[in-house]
UniProtKB/TrEMBL annotation:
Organism of derivation: Piromyces finnis
Biased composition (Acidic residues): 244-257
Spans annotated as Disordered: 225-257
Segment forming the signal sequence: none
One Gene Ontology term, aspect cellular component: nucleus
Matching PANTHER family: PROTEASOME SUBUNIT ALPHA/BETA
Protein name per UniProt: N-terminal nucleophile aminohydrolase
Keywords: Cytoplasm, Hydrolase, Nucleus, Proteasome
Purpose: The proteasome is a multicatalytic proteinase complex which is characterized by its ability to cleave peptides with Arg, Phe, Tyr, Leu, and Glu adjacent to the leaving group at neutral or slightly basic pH. The proteasome has an ATP-dependent proteolytic activity.
Compartment list: Cytoplasm; Nucleus
């Protein structure tokens, strides 16, 4: 047998000859094939956004929520397999409730990320289970301020100023790196996130229906995880589309020359 997956991907507890665990890599591939998800930590809060294809015209708009509140001060989104994401959200809510019952305090961002990372990693250890086919972005606002964490299907988690997961994530990351995240507000971050998603996804889903879901947790939302106000979303998407049109006009002028 070779180390290309043959025979070594039957169990998440089996290493290949070169030390790889193929089931974890398959889970990461499932995440890469999902819609683009972006998390941005600004100076006064965190913004989460995820794009979702509308698979049927019969679906009620905005009915298939992908971003959920774990507690009043915690928002969570799981790009990848929807069912796996719902299971992780349920577990995160249980962890937050158990912590509050035991310590009479809301769980901190660092603690919820650590506990969820351990839970996800446990599903890579045994042959009787499989890794979760989704990544996890956690936005929190606690006594240390706003925080953003991302957990891989392997269970490894990191704190981020900005991150992107899903299709075309590398292009989105390059755009996020250009932002001065320590200086912009959450309101400005919504504008930038909308611009990045529209610019990255323009060619990928040009003729397909899709929705973009936005939430934030910031000073303006009273440090509670809520949906971004509809008027701000409309303004952000309008400016994002205008920016795309301007870029197209510039390209046309260059072609004429």
């Amino acid at each position: 047998m070779s180390s290309i997956g043959t025979g070594y991907d039957l169990s998440s507890s089996t290493y290949s000859l070169d030390g790889r665990i193929f089931q974890v890599e398959y889970a990461m591939k499932a995440v890469d094939n999902s819609g683009l998800c972006i998390g941005v930590r600004a100076k006064d809060g965190v913004v989460l956004a995820i794009s979702k294809l509308v698979h049927s015209k019969l679906l009620v708009p905005k009915s298939n929520k992908r971003i959920a509140s774990v507690d009043q001060h915690i928002g969570m989104v799981c790009p990848g397999l929807v069912a796996d994401g719902k299971a992780l959200i349920k577990r995160a809510r249980l962890e937050a409730q158990n912590y509050k019952d035991n310590y009479r305090l809301p769980i901190s961002g660092k603690m919820i990320a650590d506990r969820m990372g351990q839970f996800v990693q446990a599903y890579t250890l045994y042959s009787s289970v499989r890794p979760f086919g989704c990544s996890t972005l956690i936005a929190t606002y606690d006594e240390v301020g706003p925080s953003l964490y991302m957990i891989d299907p392997s269970g490894v988690y990191w704190g981020y100023f900005g991150c992107a997961v899903g299709k075309n994530k590398q292009i989105a990351k390059a755009e996020i790196e250009k932002l001065k995240l320590k200086e912009i507000t959450a309101r400005e971050a919504v504008m930038e996130v909308a611009r990045i998603i529209y610019s990255v996804m323009e060619d990928d889903i040009k003729d397909r229906d899709y929705e973009i879901e936005y939430t934030w947790i910031c000073d303006e939302s009273n440090k509670k995880h809520t949906e971004v106000p509809s008027d701000l979303v409309e303004e952000a998407e309008k400016k994002a589309k205008e920016s795309l049109d301007d870029d197209d006009d510039d390209d046309d002028m260059d072609d004429d020359e």
